[in-house]
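Protocol step 4 of 6: structure prediction from sequence.
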Amino acid sequence: MINVNKLFRRLSIRTKLVIAFVLLGVVPVAVVGGSGAVFSFSLLNQTVLDGLREGVSLKAGEVQQFLETVRDDVMFLTRLPTLQTMVASGSAPSRAATDAVQQAFLAFSRSRKAYYQIRYLDERGREVARVDFDGERHYVVPAAGLQDKSDRYYFREAMRLPVGAVYVSPMDLNEEWGKVERPAKPVVRYAARVADPRGEARGIVIVNLYASKILSQVVSLGRERGTVFLVDSQGIYLADSRRMPPEASGFAAAGDSLHGDFAREITARLLSGTAGAVVEPGLRGRILAFAPIHPGPGRGPWVVAHAYSKAEVLSTIRSLQLLVAVLGAGVLVVAAVVGVAAARHFTRPIAALAKAAEAVAAGDFDRVIRVETNDELEDLSHQFNRMAGRLKEHERELLQARERAERLAREAGALSRIGTEISSLLSLPEILQLVVDKARELLGADVAILCLAEPGMGLRVGATSGAGEALRLGPGAPLDATDCGRAGALGCLCPVTHGGLLPTHVAAPLRTGEREVGDLCVGYRAPRVVDREQMDFLQGLANQAAIAIENARLHREVRDLARLEERDRIGRDLHDGVIQSIYATGLGLEECMRLAAEGSPEVKPRLEEAIEGLNTVIRDVRNYLVGLDPEELQDRDVAGALDGLVRGLALNSLLAADLSVEEGIDRLLTRDQVIHLFQICREALTNVIRHARASRVALSLGRDDGSVRLRVEDDGVGFEPDARPGAGRGLRNMSERARRLGGELSVTSAQGRGTRIALRIPRAPAS
């Protein structure tokens, strides 16, 4: 048996050092490379998966936003004044009315390159107005080219929808004169009913959307790598980058579906209507990311998916393995060379080297070793001397770096102070002037200028600071592209020089997100070099300015929004309070007219009550203008206020009214809840008088399972809630008030069975 220890002792120092260096170099590389190869696959898998998921979600979002724009366009077309005028004229519109609608359609079509057809069909399915786009020109289809579409499925289904709803067809091929158009054109149709002034549906507006615009947009996601496909809610392929170019029809592979290409579990995930990602099992499987696209109401979602082969991931792993092998071989070679060199260098005057190293370690970088052996040791001595010299240089560089760090700290502190000062300002001119003044002061410049980019207007001078004779333009002046100076500029976009007075100038862009809103520029009278630290400081100041500019603009927008919200509050309160009171007073006056005609002695008291009602309205107007409580609630509890409301209702309308208020209910409500609750009751009772034709109404207020419950029920004619195209302002106001209270409002009604309004709101917290 070989004694390894004895054998190792017989080896020369040089050989031992070579072996040690080789082991120290190769072993870590082998360990790191092996462990890296083990974890690389899962890491790359996850990286690819995240990238695919983000790309698919972005593409689905783009298509979804585009389809929502189409739905909005269809509703806009139904409300065109020319179309409404033609519909109101009757079933036989004039030629002038039809021409006006066609010209309106033509103008709209020219702004939408994705729309193949825009049509109006009357209630019998005949085309009345039609505009086509053949890819090059937009034109009105003459009367001879108009067709009868009453037998088409999309006409029948669109006519079944209520006015205000949008119909979305499946994606299919366009037909003309009963035959599929050639070349084939895949389309998706969006349609909505058009009503006359009486609310009766007179036809539909329908837009044929080029489906190829959607298909090519989706398929383009997989042009570089992987496979992209689009399927409908049944899993049928609409587009597939493996089978067709992006511009081809999505029905070239008709009948193909996900069920033939993927396992049942994966197909179920893809068609679940949610976004996500799945990984097929096995090394030859695929990585898929998917997201839904909702074309419109009543139509199941489409699914866009991006598949990436695991083989491509494995190819990256193989490249990594090859890189690790090459790196290991390189390390082996380098370790061997270094080991040999070290053995040669450290076999002679080690003591001298140690002493010199000790001196250097103590900070004596002037120590010099003199070895004259004409071999590697002499080179070693020279290297040691050079090392000492480099350490001395490094010491000097460290001192310089320390000074630079202190300077950067001062600049950072200055930026922080400037940021604090800027953040306290909301006036845009003040912000701009402060920025240019600070830029000129802290950078030692002669001139500073800030230019702002205004949409549709180019660059304009926002503020200036410094030598006026060197500035070509003043604040607010527009900037032409030819004004840009170039000498000594690093990305300069705005002019500051005049007649060569400022030969050196630099600029930094002002950015908010990805959008550039301007530039901050400084100039110097004498040529100079602007270092990177100064440029970084200028950019930091520009960033502070961009944030401050954006904050000033946002403050202005918030202020404008607050004005709009206050206007809406006053309008809502006037509707819920004052208008309802005026209406009730009007009913009382009508009753006075009837009594006066009969010669009844009750006319005078009724007129006095009407006058008192008008005085109450005046007081309510004053209160609402300053956001105060309705007059009925002044110094009264909720039971008393509701009792007065019901008695006034019964008096003015001859309607029998029952009121039930649970004792102690005021303790369960805040003052704000009482106000909103009172206004909801008033609106509900007013609707009974206006619309219900009821003989009796019952109002009850009580507690129920930790909440407060309100019910208003009448025995009137009722209505069909599902048949109403939309709610009036009264119902919208009641719903909005319920939402503000954190409650739920429900309306139950049927023809001939009366109406019930139920409100449930949370109790006020115990004080």
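Step 5 (inspection) to follow. The chain has four domains: 40-334, 355-403, 445-618, 629-767.
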